[in-house]
């Protein structure tokens, strides 16, 4: 077991999902078309290929994007047309910056009766004071067994051979590994742990290599569900999770709307009830929001997204209500948006805010978790707050699996630990609390 401590400040803008300006770039051959109810896809010689991606929504490949877009924009049968936006290229840091206003917590005194993982004492997010009170929740869990919940990590991939993750990876039992056949007929070949939408086969299908080359998705996964009580490394928030890896974010952070949509749809159609999105972009189409709505209504999936890391608090807070980051700024009932807190109880200095667009806060500064090649590191960002929340959501849903996505979201929001200084920075005015969430979920009928 190798240990690594990340403690180098680079710049807030280098954090994943923090591009300083909209890229303005889009796929030159792609156009999203949403038809009005009752109308089929409009016919045009400029449409060379079409794919239905949601109710009345199509992704088409065109030989002349600008001409087709202009022709359809005024059609009475078309609700909207949108380009397929990139996030914008940026250098992904080898070492993610920490919150310089929140010192690293080590040897924190906590009662770890329920965990034998040697570095669990460094998980300050588990504490009652300024954390999510995870330790107290494990002392008073409901008497029935929690159901297994699949959490999709839409990110840079996951090191599924990691010593603390290999036992909690989702495995597609309908596939025979390595036989080159789509055994379960879900449209993907050998999708054992998920899919990689960044690399496609000769038929344009996403491929199966979900292994991470960047550490970000591995770090996110460990926070959610690193194996508990294996006497190795850390422990995840949830003990009832399988991680579905969906490699969607390139190592230059230039994710594409159509790839994000495919990731969401794959996750929902293959059993994920929670989707963690620790990424963000300044420009995105409403088609992404519409797909979040659809998978929520059809599959009861809750999408949990990071708010973004563009602030320079306490002097200047980036407000997503005024300067949106996506998917965080979408107005979907099936989307929960998370700001980041530090171990002193304050909002993390980098965290975006938004009284309307940001829902809750969770620990995100100096979070210890897994990274590639059996290593462990601390990292900071709303990217770390989102998986802490996803772990709580999965625990609640495991014990109360009949909750709808909208009910689960309401439970999490209504159960926060109130923090007076958060009142104007997010809708709930508080920090995620696991035992409160379990208690309130038990009262939903």
Model description:
The protein has 445 residues and is an alpha/beta fold. The protein has 2 domains: 60 residues; 350 residues, Rossmann fold (3-Layer(aba) Sandwich). It contains 8 helices and 16 strands. Strands 7-6-8-5-9-10-11-12 form an 8-stranded mixed sheet, with helices on both faces. β2 and β3 form a beta hairpin. α4 packs parallel to α5. The protein is globular, with a radius of gyration of 21 Å. The N and C termini lie far apart (45 Å).
Q: Helix content range of the residues, please?
A: 10-25%
Strands ordered across the widest β-sheet: 7-6-8-5-9-10-11-12
Q: In DSSP terms, counting alpha (H) and pi (I) runs of 4 or more, how many helices?
A: 8
Average pLDDT number: 92
Strand content: 15-25%
CATH structural architecture of the largest domain: 3-Layer(aba) Sandwich
> What is the CATH superfamily label of the largest domain?
Peptidase S8/S53 domain
What is the radius of gyration? 21 Å
Characterize the overall form. globular
Helix-strand topology string: EEEHEHEEEHEHEHEEEEEHHEEH
| CATH level-1 class of the largest domain | Alpha Beta
Question: N- to C-terminal separation?
Answer: 45 Å
Poorly predicted spans = 2-22
Number of domains: 2
Decide which structural class fits the backbone: alpha/beta
The biggest sheet, with number of strands, parallel, antiparallel or mixed sense and barrel status, is: 8 strands, mixed
Number of strands: 16
CATH topology of the largest domain: Rossmann fold
